[in-house]
Design brief:
- The complex is a heterodimer of chains A (407) and B (506).
- With 407 residues, chain A is mostly helical.
- In chain A, 60% of the residues lie in helices and 0% in strands.
- Chain A contains 17 helices and no strands.
- Helix content of chain B is 78%, strand content 0%.
- Chain B has 19 helices and no strands.
- The chains are: A mainly alpha (407), B mainly alpha (506).
Chain lengths: 407, 506
C-alpha cells in the first residue's frame, strides 16, 4: 500500500533517520526486522489481527459458545450430546435451582459439578440449559444471515451508486434515506411481525433484519469508492476495456475490504441485539420456540425469586455481542492501524513534552503523510467501535452533500 | 442560506412522504387486525367486527386508507386536521399529546446529559491516549455497546431502585461501599490528571479523603433524608463555576472575563434571595421557565457590558455561571421538599410508571416525583448514548490532532488549553454534530424498549400496542414524531456545520 523505504531495513531502527510515513508502515518495518523477509498486504493484516489480544480472546469465546450451542442440543434433526429437550416439560427438582457449581469444595463451594439441570429449570420444568442453548443457536443463525445479507446488499448498493453516479446514485441514495428515516427498531418490528406470521421459524426474521440493516455500510462503501474510482488503476482498467461489473468486483471492492469486513462484524453485533430486543417486545421469535430475548421477557419478574432464569440468557447475549464487537475492533486495528490501540506508543498526541523529545522525523513524517495516506479523502470514515449510527463523517471537508448530510 | 434550508426541507419532506407510504403499507400488511375478535366468544361478535371495520376502514384497500390518513394530516394546514382514530375509535392526536410529553422529557434529558458527559470523556481519553484510564474507559464503552437494554434495566431496578429504597428508609453508613467508591474515583481522577508520581499520589489521596469525609458529613448532618444547601453553599458553587469556566475558556489572566463571571455570581446571590419567596410558596412551570429566560438574559447582558475585548468569552462564562447557579437554586427548593415527598411516598423510586398516580401534593413534590421516576430510564439511555459520543469524540480528536495546524499552534507557543479546546476540539466538532442528529432520532426509537421495561405510557407504548393490533394510525403518529425529529435535527446539524466551519457554505 505504502512503499517502505529500503533504508529503514538497513538502519534497523524504524524511527531512526528515515522518515517513517505512517504508523502502519512503522509496524510493517518492525515485522520485517523480526522475520527478515517481506509479507504481502494480507499477511500483514493477518499478523496484526492475531496479535490483538482482546480479539483473540473473543475469537476463542465465540468459537466455544458456538460449539456448545450447536453440539449440545443438536441442530437440524441431528441429535446432540445433551439428553434433554427444550420443549418437553418435566417435574421440577429442588425448586428448579441450577445444579451447576464452579466453586471448589476447599473454598466452601459444592465442588465442580455439572449436574442434572446445570442452568436450572423454568416454571414448567423445562431444562433451562437446553432453552438457553436453543436461544443461542437462534442468535447465531440470525448473526450469520444478517451479516451476510447486509454486507452483500450494502456493498453492492454503495459500489454501484458511487461508480455510476448521476441518476443511479440519486435513486439509490434516496432509497437509502427512505430506509434510514424510519427508526431501525420500528422498521424491524413491523417486518418482524410480518415474518413471525409466516411461521417458518427464524429464517424469515433473519432475512428481513438483513434487508433493513445494510444502509450504513452502503454509505461507507460509497464514500470509499467515490475517491477510489478517480485513481489511475481504474482509468487503466477502463482503458483496457474492462466492463463496469469487472471493475467494481475486481478493482474497487477488494480495495474497500477493510471497511466492509469491519462493518460486517458491527452489523452482526447489532443484529444479535436487535433480534433479542424484538423478541423481548414480542415482534420476533414467539413461543413455543425459544430465543434469548424471549426468555428474558418471560422471566424478568422472576428475578427476586429465581434469578438464574434471568442471568443466563442475559450473560449469553452479552458474551456474544461483546466478543463480536471486540473482533470488529481487532479487525479495524488490523486493517487501519492509524486508529489502533493495540500497541502502546510512548508519544501521546497531546503531550507536548513527548513531542519535544521525540520531535523530528517521526512527528513530521507522520503529520505530512496523514493527508496522502487518506488519498483524495473525499470521505474518510473512521469506522468506530459501535454498530449503531456508523455514519460516514468526513473530517477533511464537507463533500458528499446528499449522501453525507441527508437523512 | 434560506434557499438552502428550503431546498433541504423540500427534499427531506419528499423522503418523509415516501417513507410514510412504505411504513403504512408494511403495517397494514403485517397481520390480521381482527384476529382477537375472530376467536372471541362474545354474543355480539359480528357487531364488534363491524364496528372495528368501520373505525379502521378495513373494507377499503390500503392506498385509500393511506389517502384518508394523509388527508387528515393535511387538514392541519387548514387548522382542522386529524391523525385518525385507533381501532376503538379514540382520536390518536389526543393519545399522542399525552404520550409525547413523557417520552420527549426522557429523550431530551438523556441526550443533553449524554452529549455533555460523552464529549468530556472523549476529550479526556484522547488526551490520555493509551493510558490505563483510556483502556478502562474503552472496555466500559464496549460493554455498554453490547448491553441488552431490557436486561440492564432489570438490573438497575433491582440494585439501584429497590436497594436505594430499602436504604433510604433507614440510612446507615456502609463503609465498605463508601471506601470502594472513593478508591475507584481516586484512581480515575489521578489517571485523568496524570503528572508525576507525587502529583498522582496527592490527587488520589485527596480524592479519597474528600469522598470519605463528605460521605461522613452528609450522614452526620442527616443530608440523605433531610437535604439542604443554604446561601453559603450557593455562593461557593457560584464562585467555583465562575472561576472554573474562566480558567477553561480564556485562562484566569483575562481579568475582564473573570470580573464578568464574579459579577454574575453576585447577581445570582441577589436572585437567590429575591426569588426565595416566590419559589418557596407554590410556583408553577411557567414561573420557572420565565426565570430561566431571565437568567440567560442577565448572563448575556453582564458578559456584553463587562467583557471588554473578549465579549464572546465573557458571555459564555457568565451564561454558564448563571445557568449553574439557577439550577442550584432550583435544587435547593427541591431539597426543601424532599422530606415531604418521603412522607407521601416512603419508597421514592418506584420501578414502574412515569409518575405516581393520584398523587395530590404541592408543585415541588410532584416535580420531585416525576424527577425520581425519570432517574432510572435516563441513566439507562444516557449510558448507551455516552458510549457513542465518547467513542466518536475520541477518534475525531485523535484524527484532528494529526493535522498541521495543531503542530503550528504548538509552534506558536500556545498553551495546551488553547491547543486542545480551541484548535483541536473545535475542529473535531463536525463529526460529533452528525452523530448528534442521528442519535436523537434513534433514541426516540430506542425509547420503545425503555418505556416497556419501566411501564411508561409514552410514545413507544403507543407504537408497540398499535403494531400488535395491526392498527396503522398510532404507528404513523409515532413515525410522524420520529421522522420530523430526524428531519429537524439534520437541518440543525447542517446549519451547525456552517457555524463551526465557515469554509462550508450552505
Amino acid at each position: 500500500m505504502i512503499p517502505v523505504s529500503s533504508s529503514a531495513q538497513n538502519t534497523g531502527r524504524p524511527a531512526g533517520g528515515t522518515a517513517v510515513v505512517d504508523l502502519a508502515e512503522a509496524e510493517d518495518i518492525k515485522l520485517r526486522e523480526n522475520a527478515g523477509r517481506s509479507y504481502s498486504q494480507g499477511a500483514l493484516v493477518r499478523k496484526r489481527f492475531f496479535r490483538h489480544k482482546a480479539a483473540m480472546v473473543s475469537l476463542v469465546v465465540l468459537t466455544l459458545v458456538t460449539l456448545l450451542a450447536f453440539t449440545s442440543i443438536g441442530f437440524a434433526g441431528i441429535p446432540g450430546w445433551w439428553d434433554k429437550s427444550y420443549t418437553s416439560a418435566a417435574t421440577i427438582v429442588n425448586g428448579g435451582k441450577p445444579t451447576l457449581s464452579l466453586v471448589p469444595q476447599f473454598l466452601g463451594g459444592e465442588g465442580l459439578r455439572w449436574g442434572e439441570h446445570p442452568f436450572g429449570q423454568e416454571s414448567t420444568g423445562k431444562d433451562y440449559f437446553a432453552l438457553v442453548m436453543r436461544g443461542t443457536q437462534q442468535s447465531m443463525i440470525i448473526a450469520a444471515i444478517v451479516g451476510l445479507l447486509s454486507t452483500v446488499i450494502g456493498a453492492a448498493v454503495g459500489a454501484i451508486s458511487a461508480y455510476f453516479g448521476g441518476w443511479v446514485d440519486s435513486v439509490l441514495m434516496r432509497l437509502t434515506d427512505l430506509i434510514i428515516v424510519i427508526p431501525l427498531l420500528v422498521l424491524a418490528a413491523v417486518l418482524g411481525q410480518m415474518a413471525s406470521g409466516l411461521e417458518l421459524g427464524i429464517i424469515p426474521l433473519a432475512v428481513v433484519l438483513g434487508l433493513v440493516s445494510w444502509t450504513s455500510l452502503a454509505r461507507l462503501v460509497r464514500g470509499e469508492i467515490l475517491s477510489l474510482r478517480e485513481k489511475e488503476f481504474v482509468a487503466a482498467a477502463v482503458a483496457m476495456g474492462a466492463k463496469p461489473g469487472r471493475i467494481i468486483a475486481k478493482h474497487l471492492l477488494p480495495n474497500t475490504i477493510g471497511v466492509i469486513v469491519v462493518n460486517a462484524t458491527f452489523a452482526i453485533a447489532g443484529a444479535v441485539l436487535l433480534e433479542t430486543s424484538l423478541s423481548y417486545l414480542g415482534f420476533g421469535v414467539t413461543p413455543p420456540d425459544s430465543s434469548l430475548g424471549l426468555l428474558i421477557s418471560q422471566y424478568q419478574n422472576a428475578f427476586t425469586t429465581r434469578p438464574w432464569l434471568f442471568w443466563w440468557p442475559g450473560m449469553m447475549i452479552l458474551a456474544i455481542a461483546l466478543s463480536v464487537n471486540f473482533l470488529g475492533d481487532g479487525l479495524r486495528d488490523a486493517f487501519d492501524p492509524r486508529q489502533s490501540g493495540a500497541h502502546r506508543r510512548k508519544r501521546g498526541f497531546f503531550s507536548r513534552r513527548a513531542s519535544v523529545t521525540e520531535a523530528g522525523a517521526t512527528t513530521a513524517g507522520g503529520l505530512a503523510a496523514a493527508p496522502t495516506a487518506r488519498g483524495a479523502g473525499l470521505n474518510d470514515a473512521p469506522v468506530d467501535a459501535d454498530g449503531r449510527p456508523n455514519q460516514p463523517h468526513n473530517t477533511s471537508g464537507f463533500g458528499a452533500g446528499g449522501g453525507q448530510g441527508g437523512l | 442560506m434560506l434557499k438552502f434550508i428550503l431546498r433541504r426541507l423540500g427534499s427531506s419532506l419528499l423522503v418523509l412522504f415516501g417513507a410514510s407510504i412504505l411504513l403504512f403499507f408494511l403495517v397494514v400488511n403485517s397481520g390480521d387486525p381482527l384476529s382477537d375478535l375472530r376467536e372471541s366468544q362474545a354474543n355480539n361478535r359480528d357487531q364488534l367486527i363491524a364496528t372495528r371495520i368501520a373505525y379502521m376502514d378495513l373494507d377499503r384497500p390500503w392506498y385509500v386508507r393511506y389517502f384518508i390518513w394523509l388527508q387528515g394530516l393535511g387538514g392541519y394546514l387548514l387548522g382542522q386536521g386529524t391523525l385518525g382514530t385507533n381501532r376503538s375509535g379514540q382520536q390518536v392526536a389526543d393519545l399522542l399529546a399525552n404520550a409525547a410529553s413523557s417520552t420527549l422529557r426522557l429523550v431530551v434529558l438523556a441526550t443533553v446529559l449524554a452529549i455533555i458527559i460523552g464529549v468530556a470523556v472523549g476529550i479526556i481519553t484522547a488526551i490520555r491516549q493509551y493510558s490505563g484510564l483510556d483502556y478502562a474507559v474503552t472496555f466500559l464503552i464496549f460493554l455498554f455497546f453490547s448491553l441488552p437494554v431490557f436486561w440492564a434495566a432489570v438490573l438497575l431496578k433491582e440494585y439501584m431502585a429497590i436497594g436505594y429504597n430499602n436504604w433510604i428508609a433507614e440510612p446507615t453508613l456502609n463503609w465498605a461501599l463508601i471506601i470502594g467508591l472513593a478508591v475507584i474515583l481516586g484512581l480515575a481522577l489521578q489517571a485523568a490528571m496524570a503528572g508525576s508520581l507525587a502529583r498522582r499520589a496527592f490527587t488520589f489521596l485527596a480524592t479519597v479523603a474528600v469522598v470519605v469525609l463528605g460521605a461522613y458529613l452528609m450522614f452526620a448532618l442527616d443530608m440523605w433524608r433531610n437535604p439542604r444547601l443554604g446561601p453559603v453553599v450557593q455562593l461557593v458553587i457560584g464562585l467555583a463555576v465562575a472561576v472554573g469556566a474562566t480558567a477553561l475558556v480564556t485562562g484566569l489572566r483575562n481579568r475582564s472575563v473573570l470580573k464578568a463571571g464574579l459579577v454574575t455570581v453576585a447577581l445570582g446571590m441577589v436572585g437567590y434571595y429575591a426569588t426565595y419567596g416566590i419559589l418557596f410558596a407554590n410556583p408553577n412551570g411557567w414561573i420557572i421557565a420565565g426565570l430561566a429566560v431571565i437568567t440567560v438574559l442577565v448572563g448575556v447582558l453582564v458578559g456584553r457590558l463587562l467583557g471588554g475585548f473578549s465579549q464572546g468569552s465573557a458571555v459564555t462564562v457568565s451564561v454558564v455561571t448563571a445557568l449553574v447557579m439557577g439550577t442550584a437554586i432550583i435544587a435547593e427548593h427541591m431539597m426543601n421538599y424532599w422530606p415531604a415527598l418521603l412522607r407521601v411516598k416512603s419508597r421514592p423510586i418506584s420501578t414502574i410508571g412515569s409518575e405516581t398516580p393520584n398523587l395530590k401534593a404541592d408543585f415541588w413534590v410532584l416535580f420531585l416525583d416525576k424527577g425520581t421516576q425519570l432517574l432510572l430510564p435516563t441513566i439507562l439511555l444516557t449510558i448507551i448514548s455516552v458510549a457513542t459520543y465518547s467513542r466518536y469524540t475520541r477518534s475525531s480528536m485523535l484524527e484532528v490532532s494529526r493535522q498541521d495546524y495543531i503542530r503550528t499552534a504548538r509552534a506558536k507557543g500556545l498553551g495546551e488549553r488553547q491547543v486542545i479546546l480551541k484548535h483541536a476540539f473545535r475542529n473535531s466538532l463536525i463529526p460529533i454534530t452528525t452523530i448528534m442528529a442521528f442519535d436523537f432520532a434513534g433514541l426516540i426509537g430506542g425509547a420503545v424498549i425503555t418505556e416497556r421495561v419501566f411501564g411508561w405510557k409514552g410514545m413507544g407504548e403507543l407504537f408497540a400496542t398499535g403494531l400488535h393490533q395491526v392498527d396503522p394510525a398510532p404507528v404513523m403518529a409515532f413515525f410522524l414524531v420520529t421522522g420530523t425529529a430526524a428531519v429537524l435535527m439534520n437541518l440543525v446539524a447542517d446549519i451547525l456545520y456552517a457555524v463551526l466551519d465557515p469554509r462550508i457554505r450552505v
